[in-house]
Description:
Blueprint: H1 32-40, H2 43-53, H3 59-66, H4 70-82, E1 86-91, E2 99-104, H5 106-109, H6 112-125
Antiparallel strand pairs: 1-2
Amino acid sequence: MQPRHPASSHATHPRATLARMDFRELDSTRCSVARTAALVGDAWTVLVLRDLFNGIRRFDDLAAHLHIARNVLTRRLTALTEAGLVDRVPYREPGRRERHEYRLTPAGRDLRPVVLAMLEYGDRHLAGADGPPMRVEHDGCGEPVYVEVRCAAGHLVDPATRLRTVPLAPALHAG
Length: 175
């Protein structure tokens, strides 16, 4: 199995050059989790992404489905557009003024596993006695979709699997 991201490749970053260290020694200000959370970490942004993944693309449709104030939706869509996660694409219905719909970019689509992982977590831990209200299925075969985490060698990494964090550059060390 090929690594999804070149940065995870052992060929790119041989183990021999990576010293084991305490996670607390890494510079957390350059953390990718922190950067991603700053970009999409509020509830409205995640819900906008969820709806975009499910084909709701027009402003009025998003506002109605989410029951979100228009000014809040405008801010979230503007932020997603400025971050390169969403493209604002004009359209015009016959006899109407030009309007815009919002389409996920490749970078935006890369967040699908994150949103699906949140769905799985909610289904497992927050759905209550009635269970989840829906499930996501693969359109091609009809089977349920789930998120798996694997290492670059293809090994399944479940929530109990021990992981370690290694620095990739000397500049990542804290002060």
